[in-house]
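User: I'm putting together a small comparison set for a docking exercise, and I want a reference complex before I start. The sequence is below, and the ligand is S-adenosylmethionine. Could you produce the 3D structure with the ligand included, as structure tokens?
Assistant: Of course. I'll restate your input first, then give the structure tokens for the complex.
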Amino acid sequence: MHPIDPEFEALLLYLKESRGFDFTGYKRSSLMRRVNRRMSQVDAQSYPDYLDFLQVHPDEFTALFNTILINVTAFFRDTDAWEFVSKEVLPDLLAGKPEDAPIRVWCAGCASGEEAYTLAMALAEAMGIEAFRERVKIYATDVDEEQLAEARQAAYGEREMQSVPPELIAKYFEPAGNRFVFRKDLRRCVIFGRNDLVQDAPISRIDMLTCRNTLMYFNAETQAKILARFHFALSEGGMLFLGKAEMLLSHGTLFTPLDLKRRVFRRAPRAMPLAGAVFTEPAPIANSSVLGLDELRNEAFAASPVAQLGLTSDGLVALTNRRLDKLFRVSSRDIGRPFRDLELSYRPVELRRYIEQAQIERRTLRVTDVDFHRDGELVNLEVQVTPLTGLDGSLLGVNLIFHDVTAAKRLQDDLELANQQLEAAYEELQSTNEELETTNEELQSTVEELETTNEELQSTNEELETMNEELQSTNDELQNINDQLRVSTARLDEANAFLETVLTSLRAGVAVVDQDLRVRMWNKRAEDLWGLRSHEVVGQHLLNLDVGLPFEQLRPLLRNAVSERGENGEVTVDAINRRGRSIVVRVACAPLHSTDQEPEPEGAIVVMEADDV
Ligand SMILES: C[S@@+](CC[C@H](N)C(=O)[O-])C[C@H]1O[C@@H](n2cnc3c(N)ncnc32)[C@H](O)[C@@H]1O
């Protein structure tokens, strides 16, 4: 037994009151495990915390119910049991019904529908498709609406279909994309609906009821209630098919096993015959001509190990034996006395009314469980009151027989106790078995979840792989462009180097300027002439350079060169070289045109030729 946790119970009560979901009848161990699992997913530290969380996040109810209601299922789950049902139970059930009588089946706790369609296939196989369509109604119910919605689709993937034999797939399913859909004409015979086994009324006049791997989630008390409803739901002789871990504990009066191993039971009739207290009268002793028979008879009577007392029809003591004397101190001395005057007539049990009744009804009565203290010892008696009749049917008297059943009673008590202990141990075992099975289902459900996650990861992986391939190809393209750029750069470097060589080899100083007259190039000879290095000059305004060249005289020439007209011009000026010597310099300006023949020059080339360095 799981100890009661008031905080957990408060949570269950909240679920019941706010959402009408009554989980109070579910086994605590599994239930707590499931709730704890959900709590850890939302990071709730305690049951009250989680209750608060539920109040703030109404969507959480669905997630919680999905976690609690384990819906592991499969087509033909427990093949061996289904084989037995198909081969033995269904033919038997059909044989017991008139040819065209409707067959009503209830699949309770149907989850995503596999069990209901398994039933449909098994029945259609047993009675033929045509008869199935006309006669069968399968009511498939569950408390979980999401599962029911899935079941109504009747479409299953390759994984679910693995447990359906190929010939049945071909006969009962139609492929649709990568799924298999249960035949529409037969699908109509399966009616899905919500039914809470704990709270809702059962469906009635059922011939076959399957409730597999669902009862085991409930505690013994709730199981008992549900089973009583199942008994009501089933028609006389109807069949009940449970899951392999489920047994009918202490409900032997409602159902009798048809095959215990496969968990198939038959509904027991409503009223069980009562154990009767009616005994047949002994046959009359035939007359005999044996000599000394009376004495023999008297002695046999007197020596009987069972205490006996014979009364006449008007209630006088007529016969006693030794055992009677020993037990009650009633002996031959009392013969002729009215029985009602003896203590024995009312102690240890009131016998007079039984004697009267036996005489009136002319039948043997039995008074059981009579306790009697004799010499400090407790004796347990069973008193048999038999009316004695003559051959002509007239009443001769009454015979009282006092059976000492103390030893038998003790044995019976011991047996009963042992039985109870056995039953308790058995129930414990059964409960453990169910517990194991629920844990198994929980594990299975976790495995399924992991498989789904795995599939999702796999698909993400595939997407990543595709992206990777795309990136790889983009990378290749970039690499190509890079290679081309490298080639171009190398060519450009080559061209630049060549230009550098040309410019260096010239005897004249050369400066290239842009439209704003900022220096773009300054050759070696220009460095030698004016004493400024290329890196000091490039980017500077040519006319601002601090060199001994009279730029003022060059300005018109330069403007003409960079103007739209792009005119060439030449001038000879006096200048001071880097060493401070006066020199004469011939300066030629030419417009600089880019190769694509832009009409406007993009700068100018200034060639400076000195008569001396
Ligand atoms: C483990 S599945 C069993 C499915 C199927 N019967 C089988 O054996 O393969 C248990 C089902 O019982 C349903 N269930 C749980 N509590 C229920 C209730 N109170 N009333 C009806 N169905 C319930 C769950 O929603 C779930 O679909």
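The first helix runs from residue 6 to 19. The longest strand covers residues 377-389.
User: Thanks, that's exactly what I needed.
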